[in-house]
Amino acid sequence: MSPSHIHVPTNCHTVTEILSRVGDKWSVQVVVRLGEGPKRFNELRRTVEGVSQRMLTLTLRGLERDGLVTRTVYPTIPPRVEYQLTELGCSLLKTVRALGAWAIENRDEILEARRRFDNAAETADSLQSRSDAA
Amino acid sequence: MSPSHIHVPTNCHTVTEILSRVGDKWSVQVVVRLGEGPKRFNELRRTVEGVSQRMLTLTLRGLERDGLVTRTVYPTIPPRVEYQLTELGCSLLKTVRALGAWAIENRDEILEARRRFDNAAETADSLQSRSDAA
DNA sequence: CAGAATCCGTAACGATACTG
DNA sequence: CAGTATCGTTACGGATTCTG
């Protein structure tokens, strides 16, 4: 049992901070792909699908900055750069997979809830416009 | 062992979708606070700290739409509205806590990696400007 | 090949004022 | 009390062009 009634702002902030690192548009996908093994830049660019060159660069820089991936440059011609998960990155991948499992498990329930909610809102709207017209 | 080399786009998309629901600026904090029990609007507004009225409203609507919280209106004067986690919301809270635990556990390592990275970048910059001046 | 730099549109967010 | 409506700003992300 954790004392959840004790509010520790630092922890909340920490969690939020980490979540916004991982919650951006591409970080998770990149981490998951790198979970398959080290990859080169354009290799990632192809497999992540939909990511722009710019965003892949920024995402990788961010992950590198936080110590989640390493960037290794082989000074050949043409240049060759490999990205690889660090141990920290691997441990993150594990907990992200848990969240992923939850997402897949509850996908249908969420989608249906969404459908219901949108339907209800639509119904309310049409009732509204009917009373407007009257 | 999961066959991680088999790429299932639907699952990736699902995970990304869920993560962007939870990865926004306030959802997690709201869910965590609601994990302590049902709360009223302004009660949340105070405990979540930093959230604007507008964003709290939007966040709660989003969570309600996805079936993660319920919204109960007591038609008294003044009005009283209670928000409460659904079962689905509770199950999400559990996996989010796992991510939170990871965040807290690895906070220092991340911060230090960040510091190192920024230092290295700064050093490179100053070397750059020195060769510019020459 | 692996990026850096620039430009630009959208969407997220915050502050404020108003309402039932 | 619990919102809605409107406005302005900022941050995110995409497309394009250029470079070592």
From TrEMBL, chains A, B:
Transcription regulation in keyword set: yes
InterPro entries per record: HTH_HxlR, WH-like_DNA-bd_sf, WH_DNA-bd_sf
Highest taxon above the source species: Bacteria
Domain spans labelled HTH hxlR-type: 12-111
UniProt keywords, alphabetically: DNA-binding, Transcription, Transcription regulation
Molecular function, one GO term: DNA binding
This protein's record includes keyword Transcription: yes
Protein name: Transcriptional regulator, HxlR family
